Amino acid sequence: MEATACNESESFSPIFYLVGIPSLQEFLFLPVFFIFLLFYLLILVGNSLILVAVVVEPSLHKPMYFFLINLSALDILFTTSTVPKMLSLLLLGDHFLSFPACFLQMYLFHSFSCSEAFILVVMAYDRYVAICRPLHYSVHMTPQTNAALAASAWLTALLLPIPAVVQTSQMAFDSTVHIYNCFCDHLAVVQASCSDTSPQTFMGFCIAMVVSFLPLLLVLLSYAHILASVLRISSQEGRSKAFSTCSSHLLVVSTYYSSIAIAYVAYRADLPLDFHIMGNVVFAILTPVLNPLIYTLRNKDVKTAITKMACPQDPQYSGALDP
């Protein structure tokens, strides 16, 4: 791609201007602000409830729920890296980000996104061991192993975006950089640069392939083994019970990769710029807002634990989760 001419002076630090949604009329800023605020509060409250429920309820001290609280913490951090700035943009017209703030936001957004993909793989492995090797579950999924798996997912995701972020920060920018997005996404910042964008676009594509398709392949491989094991169960009741332990995770995986697909199609299709931007916004909000709903509505243990916290004196729930 041909570089755009710009001021080559290194005496200034670029200021990044977030355009937001270009065609959004000003009178719609406040309604959209309240919609985003509602989603953000749902994310904070829903995921915090899951975190507290798993921590305080002894019967939920199991590997599956240990990984679930990692996912909930990630959802809170993931949205907090972008949504507060979106809210400030809509309510206060605060479009500007400094150079360090923009690249910090870019790094955190992509790191937490990577972490979510890897945690979903770890959760799929947990379900694989639980269903395909139930007699060895307590041996394979020890607290030390669980902590190592979660730490590996976090650490890998925190390291993976560093090369792309560092190299993008070394590209040439004008004094005021217009970012056609609601936050500092890697591709949007690269496209706003005056340098040749081809190397950075290729690097971003390679990282996206590693983060998106490799974890998806591992999840599908786990569920292929799970499906084969479940089909060998003779009783219908046994099959239903095995599938029910995976249903919440499968829905979360489907939601996560659906949001990626929406963002990808919005970018690749010949659509107006607003659709590209909204594809990124959907990716930033959809999965974190749906994850707690999925686990509280479809997972009986989590739902009971949260209800027990809300109604501690209700005899219907007071002993429901006792070991």
TrEMBL record:
GO molecular function ontology, one term from the record: G protein-coupled receptor activity
Task: Give the matching PROSITE patterns.
Answer: G_PROTEIN_RECEP_F1_1, G_PROTEIN_RECEP_F1_2
According to the record, the segments passing through the membrane are 27-56, 63-83, 103-125, 146-166, 202-228, 249-267, 273-294
Mention any Pfam family matching this sequence.
7tm_4
Q: Where is the G-protein coupled receptors family 1 profile domain?
A: 46-295
Gene Ontology cellular component?
plasma membrane
**The keyword S-adenosyl-L-methionine belongs to this UniProt entry's keyword annotation:** no
UniProt-annotated location(s): Cell membrane
Q: How does it sit in the membrane?
A: Multi-pass membrane protein
Q: What are the alphabetically sorted keywords of the record?
A: Cell membrane, Disulfide bond, G-protein coupled receptor, Glycoprotein, Membrane, Olfaction, Receptor, Sensory transduction, Transducer, Transmembrane, Transmembrane helix
Q: Which InterPro entries does the record associate with it?
A: GPCR_Rhodpsn (IPR000276), GPCR_Rhodpsn_7TM (IPR017452), Olfact_rcpt (IPR000725), Olfactory_GPCR1 (IPR050939)
Record's family? Belongs to the G-protein coupled receptor 1 family.
The name of this protein is: Olfactory receptor
Species whose genome carries this gene = Orycteropus afer afer
Underlying gene: LOC103197156
